[in-house]
Amino acid sequence: MALIVYNTLSNKKEEFKPLNGKSVKIYVCGPTVYDFLHIGNFRGPVFFNLVRNWLEHLGYQVTYILNYTDVDDKIISRAKKENTTQGDIANKYIAEYRKDFEILGLRPHDRNPRVTEFMDQIIATIEKLIANKKAYVVDGDVWCSVQDIPGYGKLSGKDLEGLIAGHRVEVGEKKKYPADFALWKKAKSGEPSWASPWGNGRPGWHIECTAMSQSILGDTIDIHGGGVDLIFPHHENEIAQSEGASGKEFVKYWMHWEFLNFSEQKMSKSLGNVVTLRQFVEKFHPEIYKFMILLGHYRKKIDFSDAQVDHAISGLARIYSSLCLASEVLKVNVKAEPLDAEFKKVLDDGANGIEAALNDDFGTPEVMARLFESVRAFNHYQRGQKVTPKVVARAEALVKWFSEYGRMMALFQEEPHAFLYYLDNMLLKKANVKREEVDSLVLERKEARKAKDFAKADEVRNKLNALNINVSDMPDGTTFWEVKK
Predict the structure, then answer these.
(1) Is the pTM of this model over 0.90?
(2) What is d(CA 4, CA 23) in angstroms, rounded to the nearest whole number?
(3) Contact 217/121 with Cβ under 8 angstroms?
(4) Long-range CB contacts for residues 71-79, cutoff 8 Å, separation at least 24
(5) What is the full DSSP assignment across 74-101?
């Protein structure tokens, strides 16, 4: 089955055909490092972690680059405010980003280039544009001439005449046309600058990604990723610069993820609803964040409302409850027999469904549906049954199956008992039920069963049911309880 991806450039789904056999080159626009990143900033890293893993699963050799923008107006402003340097601010928040990245358990990229490491390449790319008559110099500033870029607007669908009419030349700007954009900015007093053929200055935002991508991956790459807010002007201008300098197609497939809203509102500082990833994972487990991201398709908006958080907690609890049950089964000293055809078909059908979903533009909602089907089947077959070689085989198969697909999504790698304990505590707190109260009732029921006072045991079970607690008596004599999911 061929992999199909939605290409923003063509506005349609296309069969994925790499430029060079089994080699795939990916560049994703990374953060501007002047503060902690909010929960929307990590949608791309979580999603593209899956993209890279799935491509490798399909047999491709992937090179995956995500950059750090470490020189920018916002970084300079933060440095002035804190009476420090642009470099110190960038280093601080790159370290914080990496910490968040590790908290999420994502695979490292192959490289994380910084703008300040590529000044020579940026200057060389601008020189090519000037030589190709795609850019011009005015008093130490260098501008890209969009009227000299064939096909400008092809990614965003914007009309060049409309863009020119819709732009104003600001006071102090010396560009020829309103839609032209800066490649190099003349140095200003008190700001970091670098030497160039046009005088001291610093690069414009757009040229940075062009130089880093082409320097590391070559003139043409397979996939370029970013949020929908980058389609214009950033990615449109990347195309203009890159193709204007090299004369070659810059990117074959453009993939953009949608916004993440918070309680049905776009996050913004003016609304006061910006939630950093660090704040979110201090309140909720990182597994909850990743699960919420992948519950929705990457080209659809996601709302991080309280209701959606509760929905994610419930879904994760259902899955981890089955993994916990399977791990309890595997503790019993019973050797597995070959996996039976009935449950093998469940897992094989699920695997086929997951493959079809991921090959159809990374349809993660359908993937999640298949995961839930597998745990429903396992629970239906196993709950309350004696541990037999057949049951052990099913438990082994379920754990292995979830480990494989979970690894691709950076999910379901937590120790089941510990994570279910964490989720149960969250659900108990929401229901205003104390764990000690449940433990006491479970012990009371266990003692009643031991004394063969089954009427008392049933009475206590009813009390537990009223508290939304499921109790399972394991074959080894232990009692396992959890909040109903």
Answers:
(1) yes
(2) 17
(3) no
(4) 71/115, 71/116, 71/192, 71/202, 71/203, 72/32, 72/34, 72/205, 74/32, 74/34, 74/35, 75/32, 75/33, 75/34, 76/191, 76/192, 77/34, 78/34, 78/35
(5) HHHHHHHHTTS-HHHHHHHHHHHHHHHH
Q: What is the DSSP pairing of strand 23-28 with strand 265-266? A: unpaired
Tokens 């990457």 belong to which residue?
Answer: 298
pLDDT at 22 over 60: yes
Q: Which two tokens stand for residue 324?
A: 């916990």
Across 49-65, b (16+ Cβ under 10 Å) vs e yields: bbbbbbbeebebebbbb
Place of tokens 């490092």: 33
Residue 4's DSSP bridge partners are 15, 360
Q: Are the C-beta atoms of residues 183 and 241 closer than 8 Å to each other? A: yes
- Res. 433: pLDDT tops 80: yes
What is the per-residue burial (b if ≥16 Cβ within 10 Å, else e) of 391-423?
A: bbbbbebbbebbeebbebbbbbebebeebbebb
- The rounded mean pLDDT for the chain is 93
Mean pLDDT of 325-352: 94
Q: In this structure, are residues 257 and 21 in contact, taking their beta carbons and an 8 Å threshold? A: no
Distance in angstroms (rounded) separating the CA atoms of residues 207 and 121 = 10
Torsion of CA 359, 365, 366, 369, to 10 degrees: 150
Confidence of residue 384 (pLDDT cuts 50, 70, 90): low
Distance between CA atoms of residues 176 and 52, nearest Å: 42
> Do 65 and 80 form a contact (C-beta atoms < 8 A)?
no
At 334 the three-state DSSP class reads coil
> 352-361, long-range: CB within 8 Å, 24+ apart, which pairs?
354/405, 355/1, 356/1, 358/3, 358/50, 358/54, 359/1, 359/2, 359/3, 359/4, 360/4, 360/13, 361/4, 361/5, 361/6, 361/13, 361/297, 361/299
The β-bridge partners of 136 are 143
Identify the CA nearest to 185 among candidates 68, 72, 78: 72
Q: What is the CA radius of gyration of the chain?
A: 27
Three-state secondary structure call for residue 61 = strand
Strands 23-28, 221-227: pairing is: parallel
Q: Are 103 and 65 in contact (CB under 8 A)?
A: no
Sign of CA dihedral 469, 474, 479, 482: negative
pLDDT tens sequence across 139-177: 999 999 999 999 999 999 998 777 766 565 564 568 888
